[in-house]
Amino acid sequence: MPMTATAAVVIAVVLDVVVGEPPNRFHPVAWFGRLVAAVDREWTHPRLVGVLAALALPLLAAGVIAGVVWLSMWVDPWAGAVVAGLALTVTTSLRMLVAEALRIVQLSTEDVAGARESLRSLAGRDASELSPGLLRSAAVESAAENLADGFVAPLAAFAVLAPVSLTLAAAGAAWVKAVNTLDSMLGYRSKPVGGPSARLDDLVMWLPARLSALLLAQVAGRPRALLRARQWLREVPSPNSGWPMGTLAAALEVRLEKPGVYVLNAGASLPSPRKAQRGVLQVASSGVVATILAGVVAWL
After folding, report:
1. pLDDT at 188
2. Which residue, 104, 99, 176, 109, is CA-closest to 139?
3. Where are the alpha helices (DSSP H) in the chain?
């Protein structure tokens, strides 16, 4: 039933807006993170363990979600829609991302120490010496990158698979979220066990990163921002995150910089509070457009 898939998208949106993220002790992604943490240690054959973890753990997450949704569908299709909506809520995140990024932008003008502390939950970098401009840059960069990784990617998987099966759609969103969680926890050069997870994440996020960049350019009314972003891709170590970040840098006419790693749009200034806020809100608007498109695709 196409209506149940679209209903699941609507339920996920309503829950995200009204309720937000559940506490960690009740959050399935946090539960999954504990499984990943068990892998995060020294191994005699780290690459083999890394490959097994990259293959098995996302399949486990997808299988659990598929089983719960299938059982709900067996009871009643609309019960399945509700459970699938719950699954989509915990595998996508927009409200918290936008709220936290806006909070850091505001704190950068009022409480720099507080902004540095808050940034730890949003961006993986040392914020202890960051200036207000670099703090705002980090907030905008993280919002753009997480739009692709944490929202568009699982939402797109759900939408594409929904016409086939609601159960498969929910499982697909869970699988993508699990892949990204593995990478965020293990995908560092200092962790040999995380290499396979990082490579898998690069592959899975290839299309969502580019779709997110396209959404950002269209929402900003700056379609040529995509072409400008392409000039700076070699600056960014990730093969994917440079697309949404660079597109937003071009659309806002600001410099986005991670000290010692990359500079996007080097000829511009770091984002002012007003431009940083506008960039985060453009991420939010892009997420809304993505949700509408997902609902339409799921209906087909």
Report:
1. 84
2. 104
3. 2-18, 28-39, 46-75, 77-91, 95-110, 112-119, 132-146, 153-161, 166-186, 195-204, 206-219, 225-230, 242-252, 273-299
In the three-class reduction of DSSP (H, G, I as helix; E, B as strand; rest coil), residue 263 is classed as strand
Instruction: Say how far apart CA 147 and CA 124 lie, in whole Å.
Output: 16
CB 121 within 8 A of CB 104: no
Contact 243, 213 (CB under 8 A): yes
Separation of alpha carbons 242 and 233, rounded Å: 5
DSSP class of residue 256? E
How big is the CA angle at 233 (ends 237 and 157), to the nearest 5 degrees? 80
pLDDT tens for 258-276 read 999 999 999 999 999 999 9
Say how far apart CA 26 and CA 290 lie, in whole Å. 27
**Both tokens of residue 112?**
């720099």
Q: Structure tokens of 119?
A: 């940034």
Please tell me the distance from the alpha carbon of residue 76 to that of residue 87, in angstroms, as a whole number.
17
CA atoms within a 13 Å half-sphere pointing along the CA-CB vector of 105: 24
HEC sequence for 84-130 = HHHHHHHHCCCHHHHHHHHHHHHHHHHCHHHHHHHHCCCCCCCCCCC
Residue type, 196: P
Which tokens is 220 given?
Answer: 């900003």
DSSP summary character for residue 257: E
Instruction: Give the integer Cα–Cα distance in Å for 179 and 149.
Output: 10
Which residues, given as ranges, of the chain have pLDDT below 50?
none
Provide the residue ranges of all domains of the chain, joining segments of one domain with +.
2-295
Contact 47, 195 (CB under 8 A): yes
Q: What pLDDT is attached to residue 1? A: 60
Q: What is the DSSP letter of 264?
A: E
- How far apart are the C-alpha atoms of 195 and 47, rounded to whole Å? 7
